[in-house]
Amino acid sequence: QAMEKEVSAALGKGEPGEILSSAFKLKVTREDICTLQHLRWLNDEVINFYMNLLVERSKREGYPALHVFSTFFYPKLCSGGYKAVRRWTRGVDLFKQDLILVPIHLRVHWTLLVIDVRKKTIKYFDSLGQKGDDICTTLLQYLQEESKEKRKLELAASEWTLHSMSPWEIPQQTNGSDCGVFVCKYADSISRDKPITFTQEHMPYFRRKMVWEIIHQQLL
């Protein structure tokens, strides 16, 4: 009851620019939080904040070592090549991580790319079932550059498996607005090495839960 009240208040009337949560050098305003209202598209702020909550949980609760790139990473890599993002991993050894998540915004659609360093796999998760083979290849090339630059080691592409998840392998959305929530919840399961079991029906509940989690900076 108390949680419902808090969620409703956050989604209710108020100053759009009011900051409802700040951490990880990120600020989430009421306007940002309101993208979690039913059938709205999630924005970068909400997705980046949620991904950072996953990283914090992994550190705290002994889940696989997790690195998450910001939603601004992939467009920067595409527009400027490796040079443009070389410094994004200052102080981070990507090859000591277990999992690396890359949320990707394709103009009007959110998807997720998952690099499993342990298994040497790069997988693409799309809740509309589209293929992302080119995106997987781009990220493998990025890892090769990163390995050369930071470790002076050649990364053998032949040892890596690239795969776009098929619509029957992962839950799919049945509307045009829940892709961002799907991306966050794929990431939630993957970051704990858990199977992805939710469906479209869970989306309204997940949206409200995410409002609470972002405001309290704590995953339920």
UniProtKB/TrEMBL annotation:
<keyword id="KW-0378">Hydrolase</keyword>
<feature type="domain" description="Ubiquitin-like protease family profile">
    <location>
        <begin position="26"/>
        <end position="190"/>
    </location>
</feature>
<dbReference type="GO" id="GO:0006508">
    <property type="term" value="P:proteolysis"/>
</dbReference>
<comment type="similarity">
    <text>Belongs to the peptidase C48 family.</text>
</comment>
<dbReference type="GO" id="GO:0016926">
    <property type="term" value="P:protein desumoylation"/>
</dbReference>
<keyword id="KW-0645">Protease</keyword>
<keyword id="KW-0788">Thiol protease</keyword>
<dbReference type="GO" id="GO:0060255">
    <property type="term" value="P:regulation of macromolecule metabolic process"/>
</dbReference>
<dbReference type="GO" id="GO:0080090">
    <property type="term" value="P:regulation of primary metabolic process"/>
</dbReference>
<dbReference type="GO" id="GO:0005634">
    <property type="term" value="C:nucleus"/>
</dbReference>
<dbReference type="GO" id="GO:0016929">
    <property type="term" value="F:deSUMOylase activity"/>
</dbReference>
<dbReference type="InterPro" id="IPR003653">
    <property type="entry name" value="Peptidase_C48_C"/>
</dbReference>
<dbReference type="InterPro" id="IPR038765">
    <property type="entry name" value="Papain-like_cys_pep_sf"/>
</dbReference>
<dbReference type="Pfam" id="PF02902">
    <property type="entry name" value="Peptidase_C48"/>
</dbReference>
<protein>
    <submittedName>
        <fullName>SENP2 protease</fullName>
    </submittedName>
</protein>
